[in-house]
Design goal:
By secondary structure, the protein is mainly beta. The protein has one domain: Virus Head Decoration Protein, Chain: A (Beta Barrel), CATH 2.40.300.10. Helices cover 9% and strands 33% of the residues. The radius of gyration is 13 Å and the shape is globular.
Length: 123
Amino acid sequence: MALDTVTDSMTPDGLILANGEYITDSATIASGAGSLVRGTVMGKITTGGKLLKSLSAAVDGSQVPFCILLEDTDATSADKVAPVLIAAEVDGAKLTLGTAHTLASIKDGLRDLGIYIRTVSAV
């Protein structure tokens, strides 16, 4: 996918910041990943290339943040194809991080991939 066609039907929730420019793709979420919510930071398994929630202590490659999940997805018992965000400016407060990750620990790696985390202050 190029520029977004998936989120046209989603309710705006502030995950993607106002400039509106973002790029999506589809990816396979690995069976056993569980029930994941929009905004979850995902990592890519080195062998096979499927995605899991990025956990700092993982040793399969998924410990490295790779993209952000764009739709709630249940991959508890089967692989699921889901839309993911691969380039955008996002509100860090809207992200769901895996165990031991912080915004500071993922910020530089995601920036290198084209995902910029911002802190949006309440008005």
